[in-house]
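Morning F.,

Quick status update on the modeling queue. The single chain you submitted on Monday has been processed. Sequence for confirmation:
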Amino acid sequence: MTTPTKADRENGSRFLPKFDDNGLLTAVIVDHETQQVLMVGFMDQEAIDQTLTTKLAHFHSRSRGKLWQKGETSGNVLRVQDILVDCDQDALVIKCEASGPTCHTGVTSCMYRRLEDGQLTPIDT
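Structure tokens below.
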């Protein structure tokens, strides 16, 4: 297959993910009902394939260098409801139904603090 062009990615109907130099793209996970941002992760082709196959969110762990399914140890899986692809196909917004807290700290969202005047302030999640 030839390398996809900008026009292929921006105007075509085929999913042609544009991975970075490390073979990853950004995935923003939001609650499918509330639209609250739950987390940000990174996906490689294997994570995308597993997510599409199982309808459970999978990611590439940069620290461990391997595939992981969200909730594989905690049971707090993310059930994929919808996947949005940005204009140049290098980022995804994945709308999910969370079966429990998304953050490893036990809160609903990993985005539980706001930056105000150089300080982190807790917010309700």
